Every structure is written in structure tokens, then in C-alpha cells.
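The authors assume throughout that readers already know how a fold can be written as C-alpha cells. What matters is that the chain and its backbone geometry are given together, residue for residue. A single example would do more here than another paragraph of explanation. For illustration, here is how one protein appears when written out as sequence plus C-alpha cells.
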Amino acid sequence: MSETLRIAFLSSDHPRQTARGAGHIISEVSRRMAHAGHDVDVYYPVRSRGLPSVQDFDGVRGIPVGCLNSAHLPFGSDLEYAWRVAKVLPADREVIVAHNESGGVFVTRQSRRGRAHGSAVTVQTFHGIALRFLQIARDRRPKRLRAQLGYYPDWLVVRALEGGAARNADACIVCSRAIGAEVTQLYRVPRPRIRVIYNGVETQPAPTLAERAEARRFAGVPEGAMAVSFLGEDTHRKGLDVATRTVELLRRRGRPAVLLNMGNFAASTDAVRSFGFVDDATKRRLLVASDVFLLPTRYEGLPAVVQEAASLRVPVVTTRAANIEWGTPGQDFLLLEPNTPEMAAEVLEGLATSEERRRSLAEGGYRELGSRGYEQQTDEYLALFRELLAGTGR
């Protein structure tokens, strides 16, 4: 086995996409692997006519894969993406890292004997369980019979793709022990093939008082108001409705408060200021403007945005469903039960009246959640890759 590893990531996003958690992680980890001297490709789907050329993104080759022809079928573009990747992926790749259903199809296709890509080891990452995402999304479907019946074919397809990937991969990387337990329970994957590697985060300098004052002006936070930030694209699963209700309760109790909403296209109201999808600089400004970050999620693997907020010394309030497995609840962050806006409002009101409490949570959160860098996550990935390759004799 050479010092330089030849690695292929099968991503669901562009190599420089930073708006979605899993894609952001692949982007950051692949870049650091390339900087360490490894040969790294990231294959990503393009659902449009015409393909961009292969590009070098800071040492990482971004390779577009067209998958438009089957987009009208349930999960058709995922299937087409995997089929096309199998055709263009060179046989010299030593490690193939797949993610979600798209990658799951590819991993499932590689039989343990005579696989198409020689002795390459395959790794499937899980930043959540797709079946759980689907179940939560079902609650949002129209109650009409046809819409409800449509859930079952989707469920069968996702279970086949995700389960096949979990069972056929040489190892499954999970972002929390809770997700590892779900992979074992749902897909009967032996525990030795499940590896917990917690997410990293871009470690950042602490914001200054001047930066915070400018950020609050940018966000339009009224003088004396409590700024609560939220970030999430899947608004129902992430709990935007609960966050909105929480801020509305604070305002009804006479506590000036505003919700700074990012990552989705929910409409602004008197209590909510929505900024849509934001770039990294704007995300930093809005988090810095916040007195607290609130993520009342209903289900997570491990939310990267919680670590991002903690890295900027913003106190974190989330739910037990976030699966934060290190640090001390009540000391480094606060936990709620999902679907409890009244409980969240009570907790936030207590924080609003105690700057010392907010400062203590911010310091503990940074120490435990916000200081684990992508470098550590990357090193743990590479250590696993080398272990797997050593087991194959390469």
C-alpha cells in the first residue's frame, strides 16, 4: 500500500457545495485529503442538459455525471447516477466512499466476488437514515389515498438501496452511535463493520464585539431584542415550526425576540426574518448576530450546524433527537424534547435574562462541539481506509 491513496467520493452535491451538511462534509474532507497528497475524485450528479467539464477544485477533481434521462421515475436519477458512475470510475481507485441512496446503488452493484473495480474497498457513510427521513416526510403528504399509497413504493426502494449499501460495504461510517445502532437494527450489519466518526467543523476565530454589533445591524435585530437563529433546509424535520412558535410565545410574554431563519424559503413575518440560502460569510454574520442558536429537530444523525454555531461561541439549544453524544448537556448545550415550543420558550426566556449563563454555555459549547476540526475527521477517515486496505493485502 503506497503512501498516496487513490480515493473516489460519490457525492450527492457539487464538490464545493457548502449549504447542505453531508455535501459540505464531503467537500471539506476531500479537500484536506488532496492537500495531504492523496489522489481524490468527487463524482457528483448533474440533472440538466449538457455537462460541465471536469474541473480541479483546490486539488480535488470534480467529475460531473449526467442523470437526467430517468429523472421521471421514483429515485430514477439516483439509479442512473450510480449506473453511470460505474461506467466511468477508473479501476485504479483504491477506496470508494459512497453516500445516501445514490451511492447506495453503486455499492450494492459491486458484488463481493469479482467486483467491477478490482480490490477497491467500499465505504458507505450515514449522516442519518433515509428511511427515517422518509417516514417524517410522510407526515407532510396530502391525506389523499393516492398520496399515502405512494409512500410504500418509495419505502421499498429506499430500504433496498440503503440496506444493500449497508450490507455490502466493507465498512459503514456513521456520525453517531445512535445512527450506528439504527444501521444494525434495520439492516443487520455486524457491529465490527460500523465505525463511528463524528463530524468535524471549520474552526473559526472568536467574533469581536465590533463584529457582533455590525452583524446585528445587518440582521436588523432591534435594540434589546433576543436574536434566535435557525438553519435548515428540511424545515419540518428540523423544526422550523417549533422555532417560530417559540419566538412567538416569547413575544406574547413581553420578551422582544426575533428568529433569524436561514437555509430555506419560508416567508418572513413579524417574528421571523428569513434570509433564504446563504453563503458562508452571511451565515457567519447571522450566527454571530445571535444570542442563541435553536434547532428543535425531530430527527438527525448529528447536525453539523450545531457544531458551526458552537464554533462561533453561540449558545446551542437543540433536542435529544440531535444525537449529540459528547460534552455535557446543561453545561455545554441545552437539550429539549422535540415538539415542545412551550418548553423551548421557557428555556430561552431564562437565557435572555442571564448573560453569564449564555457566556458559560458558549464557552462549554466551543470547547466540546466547536473545536473538533475537519482535520481530525479527515485523519480518522484516512486511518480507516488504511486499515481496510491492509486487510485486503494492498
Notes: The chain has 15 helices and 14 strands. The first strand starts at residue 6 and ends at 10.
